[in-house]
Write a structure and sequence with these properties.
The protein is mostly beta strands. Helices cover 0% and strands 59% of the residues. The chain has a 5-stranded antiparallel sheet, with no helix packed on it.
Length: 108
């Protein structure tokens, strides 16, 4: 049922300069949620990183180009005071563009 599906998109561009060299990083995130039945839902967030202005330097602080799974959640709430929830959260190289509490993901 498409009415139970929601999707959110975000894109962030960062630029950093150090030692006379500039680095850029672009990050696209897509969050897809599906409400199976009232007590059960699933959310998946995936991303795509890229360096729009490529540099000859290899900087380990930047994300590797390409797609990655950043988060997933299964939530089951059969009663108002009972929740069974399984979460997965990962941003490569400890990169978190929003900070945990500012992320749209932290609402779930």
């Amino acid at each position: 049922d498409p009415s139970r599906l929601t999707m959110q998109h975000s894109y962030q561009m960062s630029y950093m300069t150090a030692g006379g060299h500039g680095f850029s990083q672009g990050l696209y995130l897509n969050t897809i949620s599906y409400q199976f039945t009232l007590p059960m839902s699933m959310t998946v967030q995936w991303g795509m990183a890229h360096q729009p202005f490529s540099s000859s330097l290899n900087n380990s602080a930047l994300l590797k180009d390409g797609p990655f799974l950043s988060a997933a959640q299964f939530r089951y709430q059969p009663k108002p005071n009972m929740v069974i929830q399984i979460d997965y959260r990962h941003m490569p190289y400890s990169y978190d563009p929003y900070g945990y509490y500012g992320s749209p993901w932290s609402r779930w």
